[in-house]
Structure formats: structure tokens, C-alpha cells
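Hi everyone,

Forwarding the result from last night's run.
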Amino acid sequence: MLPAYRPSSLVSSPSMRCVQTLPGADLRLDPLLSEHGYDREQSAELVRGLEGPSAVCSHGKVLPPLIDELSGLRVHLRKGAFAVLHRLDGRVVHIERYAV
């Protein structure tokens, strides 16, 4: 499904599971997306700073509070699930959730 969104950037937690989820030579690893390096404000700022369609890979303990910080909405994701956040003028205007 990821190719349908044609992400121009791939950013991931440095954990092996995330690196395997988003394979690619252009993958950028950032500890702010890891369970141990997550910081609510700094991690959200990292994601807000991404331009164009982007894919972000993180963890079940990180994604719900990160999405909350970005959108103001509480989102629950089951293990292996993912969310697509649609932004307009830097604001999240819609969230799609997918279970795997």
C-alpha cells in the first residue's frame, strides 16, 4: 500500500523491526521515533518538518501520543496497524487507519 502514497521521504525509528518495515536506501533513522528516545514535542516537530508525502515508522507506545500531538485526536492502533495522516497547510485534516 505504501507505494500508492509515493512518499518522498522515509523516516524511521532505528529499531530493526522498523528498519525492516521501511526498507530503502533513502531511509533516515531518528531516535526521536524510538520508544527510548521519544519526546512528545521534539518528535512531533520532527514529523511536522517533513515536506511532501512521507512515511514514518515507529512503535505502538509512540504512535498514539505522536498522532495525538499532531492532530489533537486520540487514536488507538492495534499491533501491526498503521495510520495515514493527511495534512493541509501543516495541519492534520484527516486520519485513515488500517489493520494488517
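The first helix runs from residue 2 to 5.

Cheers,
N.
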